[in-house]
Amino acid sequence: xxxxxxxxxxxxxxxxxxxxxxxxxxxxxxxxxxxxxxxxxxxxxxxxxxxxxxxxxxxxxxxxxxxxxxxxxxxxxxxxxxxxxxxxxxxxxxxxxxxxxxxxxxxxxxxxxxxxxxxxxxxxxxxxxxxxxxxxxxxxxxxxxxxxxxxxxxxxxxxxxxxxxxxxxxxxxxxxxxxxxxxxxxxxxxxxxxxxxxxxxxxxxxxxxxxxxxxxxxxxxxxxxxxxxxxxxxxxxxxxxxxxxxxxxxxxxxxxxxxxxxxxxxxxxxxxxxxxxxxxxxxxxxxxxxxxxxx
Length: 295
Prior knowledge:
The chain has helices at 8-17, 23-31, 47-53, 63-75, 78-96, 117-122, 144-148, 150-163, 178-196, 198-201, 213-220, 231-236, 238-243, 255-271, 283-291, and strands at residues 3-5, 105-111, 126-129, 135-140. By secondary structure, the chain is of the alpha/beta class. It has two domains: 1-168, no CATH class; 169-295, no CATH class. GO terms for molecular function: peptidase activity. It comes from Rhodococcus artemisiae.
């Protein structure tokens, strides 16, 4: 098992200091080690287009602002902190699950778009992806909150990567339901909280809805909804649905994460397990343990 935290500080600086016509190809170079993350997409993938679609930093505006943000990440020792966090988290997880097949992992840290209102406001300047085995990305803006949570954010995405690695839970796009996605977010937060505590471990946009019983009941009623096109609305919320072209369903931003945390916490309390012990527990079992006779 090898963890490679890519030196995107050097490569982002190369993009931001190059003549503008050269920047798209330099972004493609920056992302080239992550090409396998997009292996499930049809056709040839343009890595620069993926960067733009993923709320990555702009190359034709906000350049000075982005350079300053890069300097803040460097000053925060972001890359070394993330590498140490991943190594420590793998050690904790393998102790709990000794037969775990840990893949080689490439980790991409890249700045986001400070002009993107959804990214900066609704998503609080943070977007992560740990769904493709062997690849993890964090797109962020270095707010105080995001800098404080670097390790917890990285570990959250690592939990997804390990849950769906070979030998673990199978994410079948033809049959997966909202409940699996909700539970996976709750487990990832619970694992981050196990390592870094509640103040850092919760995904921030879900925190306002931890005690929202109306949102809980609404989302629990949709746990068996299938079709990944529905997940943005039911898991992340109406803001994400509107952003990504889905139909809003009346779910506040981040409420699905809050519901996932509540379900996972109930299950962990009932079973006496810690988050690391539940990495490969099927979501149906977690939901049944959390809701009991209600289902």
